Amino acid sequence: MNRDRHHATQPDQAPGHLAAYRAVLSSRMRAQRSYRSNFVIDLISSGLVGLIELAEVWLLFHQVGLLGGLTFEQVLLVFGIGDLCFSLADLFVGHLDNIPTYIRKGTLDVFYLRPQPLLLQLMTSDISLRRLTRAAIGLASIVIALSINPIHWSPAKVALLALTIVCGLVTYASLYVWAAGVQFFMVNGAEFTNAFVYGGRYASTQPAAVWSAPLKVLFGFVFPVALVAYVPTLRLLDLPGPAGFPTWLAWCTPLAALWMAAFGLTMWRFGVRHYQGGGG
Amino acid sequence: MVAIHPYIRLLKAGFRQQSAYRLAAFGGLVANLTFGFLKVAMLFATVRAGGGTVQGYDIGSMSAYIWISQGLLGSINLSGRIDLADRIRTGDVAVDFLRPLDVQLATIVTEVGRALFALIPRGLPSVAIGALTVGMTMPTTPGPYLLGAVSLVTGITISFATVYLVAIAGFWLIETRGLQILYMVLSGFFAGLFVPISLFPTWLLIVAEATPFPSMMMYPIDILTGRVTGWASAGLFLVQLGWLAAMLLVGRLLTLAGRRKLEVQGG
Question: Given CB atoms, is A115 within the 8 Å cutoff of chain B?
Fold first, then answer.
């Protein structure tokens, strides 16, 4: 019911280009905070998701100490970058997951009636502030990992870290767009795309050295999440790369992000063209 | 005297209803396999780094744990979502109370019917593909399979009896989504979905065992794969029965109280 409220909140500002998007977003932020106790539970749950995902990584390293050539202190940086990028993408565009509901109920047609690009409208139709706590867990992991690992800092490494986080965010956001595009073809197909969106998140927090060859192709190149966190971490910590992932690839994260953006937008265009309306 | 017949029909109806969504089942299988292979990569690496065994798991038994837990993903409710929650929020549940059926039993039985169907397109193929690609060690005597099958159905039922409680809280809370998400976060972790609970440190294991979640997935897998045998497996099964009884009893009391609380407006 929350979800539909923004249909009624038509922006009444003069036609500035971004004014409409801004009005929708600020109303969505106000709406989430107005159910205070529910918002607090949401924030706690979302932080707990981050902590439990970290615990799942820690439990394995706690047993053996070294996995895929990394210690827990080192994999903490992989986890932190992967989870921060994913939860920020989730915060901004995670609601694209609602597309199957829009399609089934026919409410998607409302978006078509407005004189703005469909994808941009959908992306700015909501923002999930509750993800902030999960992003905070990711950020804290990065900060702790950077302070406990010996790193030979240089301007290039600072630039690499900044570039990595921006490109990771774009990669995941594009993955959400790709998944949304696929939904136009599959009724009840959300689980199929979850395999790559949420599977991609899970994969990006692992040391890719442990992967089998098919996984390396799938999550190293098709959905390039290995480049989101693992490969840049190797470069930042001056560690050698395993077979298939030389560490100069760390500078190719923009290419990975571009590829995923192109893949995602193409799938989205296919999907939108395929869509015929829910009737009614 | 309770009439059993309608509940068996609901069980069958749930089973048949789910058979209509073939593409969804295919999508679910793809998700099971993708996550399964990622789990294989991490957990096999852990076993190898531990010198061939970790907490009694070797490659073969770890593989059995991974693929059976993946196969159960579509059948054990670890999401906390159930249709009843919407029916309570919209008030449709009033109609359910008018039917000559017990709302709690009817809900759980229908959901279990769907869950059992999901074993066919998602459960069995996941286990089969896992066994063919990476191999797994399974018991060679019939005992673990017999008790394991009963334990599995019990685990599935416990999950729905527990999710029923999340939904029924909607009589008192306006929005149960927070509770549902909390269930989703904790259930997978404590049920042993990504890491078997034997790998937990002692304090965390005690916390896990104080919840119904290991009874949903970890114990049935332990029994079925022969990791726990003899009297110990009978003990785990008894723990499951205890949780099932407790969840059903609490659900019964909350249903009675909620029914008195329910206000239906309009006509």
Answer: no
Whether residue B263 is contained in a domain is answered as no
Q: Domain range spanning residue B237? A: 5-258
CB-CB under 8 Å, A38 with B177 = yes
Q: Which residues of B touch A56 (CB under 8 A)?
A: 189, 194-195
**pLDDT digits over A248-273, tens only?**
999 999 999 999 999 999 999 998 88
- Are B31 and A64 inside 8 Å of each other by CB? no
pLDDT, position B162 = 97
Residue B99 main-chain phi, psi, to 5 deg: -75, 150
- How many CB pairs below 8 Å do chains A and B form together? 111
User: Residue B33 falls within a domain, yes or no?
Assistant: yes
Count structural domains, chain B: 1
Contacts of B200 in chain A (CB under 8 A): 59
Mean residue pLDDT of chain B comes to: 90
Across the interface, which of A67, A186, A211 has its CB nearest the CB of B49? A67
Cβ separation of A191 and B21 shorter than 8 Å?
no
Higher-pLDDT residue of A158, A27: A158
Query: Which range (A98-102, A134-138, B128-132, B192-196) has the least confidence?
Result: A98-102
Can you tell me the ipTM of this complex?
0.86
Is B265 a member of any domain? no
A184 interface with B at CB cutoff 8 Å: no
Q: For B128-135, which contacts have Cβ atoms below 8 Å and span 24 or more sequence positions?
A: B129/B33, B129/B67, B130/B36, B130/B40, B130/B63, B130/B66, B130/B67, B130/B70, B130/B71, B131/B63, B131/B67, B134/B40, B134/B44, B134/B63, B135/B59, B135/B60, B135/B63
